[in-house]
């Protein structure tokens, strides 16, 4: 493996980790409504399990509402029931093909729980980043010992790996700060 191959492999792994963390953190309910809260909720309809975003269009209605415009009139009841059963803190009302989901304000106790959950999720992501870094360094050391890479290449590659890890950690911190600001509103 060349120096570039090692680095690209690590960067790809880190990008995957930060993307997964971004998805995980978006699923944590904030004080603002987001279609991310409900778009992947499964609805059992016509002997199939479909996501809500496959059954209608979703839009945010400020300050605390989400509208779901269902394309099939027969699916309205099933979609409304699925949103209620998802327990994401939404109250649901229907009007024709439109379902209005309202997000209740967060209580202080629930806000603290969500802040702790955000921190715990972030720490899990940081642990995965460190593990990925350690694996990459092991591979590079092995390549240096087997003379695939010179000592200088190994040293420079370690520095580049650390820079990539620092960038991934800063991306995680930015996402955490955004979520904490959202929870503080």
Write the layout of secondary structure elements.
Elements: H1 3-26, E1 42-45, E2 48-51, E3 56-61, E4 65-70, H2 76-85, E5 90-95, E6 98-103, H3 108-145, H4 151-184
Helix pairs in contact: 1-3, 1-4, 3-4
Report on this model:
A hairpin with a 2-residue loop joins strand 5 and strand 6. Helix content is 57%, strand content 17%. It has helices at residues 3-26, 76-85, 108-145, 151-184, and strands spanning 42-45, 48-51, 56-61, 65-70, 90-95, 98-103. The strands form 2 sheets. The protein has a 4-stranded antiparallel sheet, with helices on one face. It is elongated and about 70 Å long. It folds into 2 domains: 3-28 and 107-184, Ribosome-recycling factor (Topoisomerase I, Chain A, domain 4, Orthogonal Bundle), CATH 1.10.132.20; 35-103, Gyrase A, domain 2 (2-Layer Sandwich). The longest helix has 38 residues, at 108-145. It contains 4 helices and 6 strands. The protein is α+β, with helices and mostly antiparallel strands. Helix 1 (3-26) packs parallel to helix 4 (151-184). The N and C termini lie far apart (49 Å).
